[in-house]
Write a structure and sequence with these properties.
6 strands, 3 helices, Nuclear Transport Factor 2, Chain: A, alpha+beta
């Protein structure tokens, strides 16, 4: 299977995130996938490795931001790498409205996502 994926594959991945469909998300990721979340104090954020850990990380995102949306995703791929840009919107745990621009940098393997490395801008008042 090729290492690259199509923009429509990344559209489906973004749609699964907006549906909060953890099973669909994980079906598009390798068994040994890595999710580098943008939140937490470590330089790399929180790193989840393997399907069960990545499931936990995804479910933490949905629990923290029950109304989370990744709006207007735009994608590009080049070989075994790709990027999705989006605008994240949600209400935070404290009720404050969040709207920030961000992106995911992907590594593909065997037609699936092996690494999802998330970045988002930090907005301050």
């Amino acid at each position: 299977m090729p290492n690259t994926v199509s923009n429509s594959f990344l559209d489906d991945f973004a749609t699964a995130w907006n549906r909060h469909d953890t099973n669909a998300i994980l079906s598009m990721m390798t068994e040994d996938c890595v999710f580098e979340a943008s939140r937490r104090p470590d330089m790399k954020g929180t790193v989840y490795t393997g399907q069960s850990e990545v499931r936990r990380g995804i479910e933490e995102v949905f629990a923290t931001f029950p109304d989370a949306r990744w709006n207007g995703p735009k994608h590009f791929t080049a070989g075994d790498r790709g990027v999705s840009e989006w605008v994240f919107t949600a209400n935070g745990p404290d009720g404050a409205r969040i709207e920030v621009q961000g992106c995911d940098v992907f590594t593909f393997r065997d037609g699936k996502i092996a690494v999802k490395n998330s970045y988002r801008k930090q907005r301050t008042d």
